[in-house]
Structure formats: C-alpha cells, structure tokens
Amino acid sequence: MANILIVDDEVGIRELLSEILRDEGHDVVLAENAAAARAVRNARRPDLVLLDIWMPDTDGITLLKEWSANGQLNMPVVMMSGHGTIDTAVEATRIGAIDYLEKPIGLQKLLSAVKRGLQRPAAPGAPAPLTLAAFTRSAPLRELARLVQQVVVNSRVLLLRVGQGSIAELAARSVQPKASPWLDLAAVSAALDVNQLQACQGGVLFVPELARLSRTQQKNLAFALERLERYDLHLVVATDHTLESLVREGWEEALAVRLFEVSLAPPSLADVRDDLPEIGAQLLLHLVEAGEVPRRHFSTAALNALRAQPWPGGYAELRAAVKSLALGTLDEEIALTDVRKLLIPATEGAVAVSLDQPLREAREAFERLYFEHHLRLEGSNMTRLAEKSGLERTHLYRKLKQLGLHGSRRSEES
C-alpha cells in the first residue's frame, strides 16, 4: 500500500488519522510541524501528504509554497484545517494541493480524498527552476520576493543593480509564471524577430549583465522592449554599471534611460551569508528532484563551510559547486572534507612565512597572507574587513596599499 505522511501539530488528530489509515493497510509517518515534515518528505518520499494549515512554526500554506517553488511538489497533498475559509482552499488548490478537508474530518471524506490522491498520475517532467519562494526561512530573500512581485505587477521592466555574488537569475526566475517560457537575450547573437518573441509569449526575457551585450544584442533588447505588452512579456536585466557608464560605452541614451526607470538592489550572497546553508541544501534537493545528481545530503559541517566562501560568481557559482559536490562523492553524505577539497585551495591556511627572515619582512609576509585571506572571505567588503581586523578604514586602506593589495571602496557601505 501507500506511504502517507500526516503533518499536524495536534497529537490526537495525528494518532486518529494514523489509526484509520493503518487499518486500511497504509504505511503512515507522522510529523508534528513543518520542520519535521521537511525532513520526512526528503528522507521517505511519501506517496501522499495530509497537511494541516495552522501550525506553530511554519503554516501549511507556506510549506506548500516552498515545496512547489523548489520542485518538491511531485506528490499529492491534501490540506486540512478546522478554521479554513473558501479563500484559503482556493489558494491551496492554486498552489498545487489536490483537495481540502475541514476538521473534524469524517471517515468517508478522509478515505475518499486519500483514494483520489493516490489514483492521480505522478507529476511529469523535471521540476521548475528554483525561485525566491523556495527560501522561506531567509528574511532578506522573503523581502526581495515581495519587492519583486510588487514591481512586476506595475512594470514590465525590472533592472537589478548587482555586484559580486549576484543572485540576479534567482530574482528573475521569481518573475517567471509557472511553466512559462524563458529566454536569455545574452545567448541570442543573431537579430531577434517577432517569431521568437511570440514563442516566448507570457514568459520572461532575461539579461544577466547589460555591459556584456554586443551592438546586435543591444538592438535586440530595444526591439523586445517595444513589444513587451503585445506578447505579454516581462524583461529583467541586471548590471553593476551605472546608466552614465553604459552611455559612455556607446549605449543609446534613450534605451539606457528606459531600462533604468524601475530598479532594485538585491542582496548579494555575501549579504545573506547566514542563509547560505539553507540555500545550498535547497539547491541540492532541487538537483536531486530534477535527476541531475544522485540522492545526496550535506553534513552540518559541510553546509557551514559554504557560509565561509566568498562566492564572487554569485548564485550560478554556488549552484555549480553544489552540483559538483554531489557528483564528486560516492557517499550519500557530502562531508566537510569534500567541500574543502573542491572549494578551498591547497595552500589556504598555510602561512608561508620563513622564520629566517628579518622580523619586518616576516611580519609583512604574514600581514599579506592575513589580508588576502580575509579579502577573499569577505568578498572584498571593506566595512566587514575593517570590523574583522579591528582597523579604522583609513588605516586599513593605507595598510592594503602598502602590501600591494586592493579592496573595494564601492562595497564600503554594503
């Protein structure tokens, strides 16, 4: 029979539903909150989930959204509530729940809902790309998701002001309606035509960095910009350049002005460093669900090691690293040693200072190693480096100049 997960914070309801379904021959697993539900879903891959809406840590609707956003809603979910409304039922169904049961739940209603759920065919194809909605425990990413949605309701164009550690693609994917087309204009080298735009109708056009577009691609961008409304398209572009610098590099001023009308400055991976373990874990889950890697999970120490990396290449670099880690181990658990071998150079932490040097030269060699390490760790963020080293910033800049190292004044206030 089926493997069924029951998620409810009331022990009496869990036990009652469990007894009924076990009498029907099903294998039942219980979870008292969303955290336990996540763990069981990942470990057991249930055939069906009975999910309570009102729970103390994370409510059922939020958990349902999370599973949908990260490609894990490939099992039927029946929502349960004693205080539900029609609006709640409609929202749950829109997200992907197959049924909605009001408490107290009658025996026949329960068995009928379970039977219908288990008769549904498995969800076909690979899961949709990850969006910001998958990261429900990160306050900065939740806020960014709300800001992105607020913008796209009122504008078809969104510019993301980014730097090192960009999460531009993750933000842009959050604009994309479910199962709609996606076109990276930076990958289109020939002239764009209306047939290509029509094929993308209702979807998203994306540019990961404006400054890297050729003249032809800039013309493609202008061509698409004039036809967004006609083909129900949204355009999301990202850049670490200013409007003025793009114009100096030869961009048409009218086009640049149009692109910069509505902009957001999303956090970088360095800004959400404390959330990197969750982001890494969710990326791995998504890759497993998509069949791109074998079934793997991170050790706690391995996840914490992700937090210590600077990730200058941003979300794309992090995703590639997670995929490499999953494919580069034969064990089900990705360990700290795996992360160290892939991500940390062999010379990292080896203080190559000769004790035979004069004190002044040895001290300078050590200081250079120290600041190289922390510049890399902090993504060249001078504010955090000043805090870490205990130096006032003017003194810090002077010290780096003496050592032949360079920080980023641009990130001083980030």
Structural class: alpha/beta
Q: For the report, how would you describe the main beta sheet?
A: 5 strands, parallel
Radius of gyration: 25 Å
Strand residue content: 5-15%
Distance between the termini: 55 Å
Mean pLDDT metric: 88
How many distinct beta strands? 12
- Low-confidence region ranges: 346-351, 408-414
Q: Which H/E pattern describes the elements?
A: EHEHEHEHEHHEHEHEHEHHEHEHHEHHHH
Modified residues (4-aspartylphosphate): 52
Keywords: ATP-binding, Nucleotide-binding, Phosphoprotein
InterPro entries: CheY-like_superfamily (IPR011006), Homeodomain-like_sf (IPR009057), P-loop_NTPase (IPR027417), Sig_transdc_resp-reg_receiver (IPR001789), Sigma_54_int (IPR002078)
Domain Sigma-54 factor interaction: 104-327
Keywords:
414 residues; alpha/beta; five-stranded parallel β-sheet; 12 strands; disordered C terminus
What this model shows, in words?
With 414 residues, the chain is of the alpha/beta class. 46% of the residues lie in helices and 12% in strands. The protein has helices at residues 11-23, 34-44, 60-69, 86-95, 107-119, 139-154, 168-173, 194-199, 215-225, 243-248, 253-259, 276-289, 300-307, 314-327, 336-343, 359-377, 382-389, 393-402, and strands at 3-7, 27-31, 48-52, 77-81, 99-102, 157-161, 182-184, 204-207, 234-239, 263-264, 297-298, 333-334. α3 (60-69) runs parallel beside α4 (86-95) and α12 crosses α13. The longest helix has 19 residues, at 359-377.
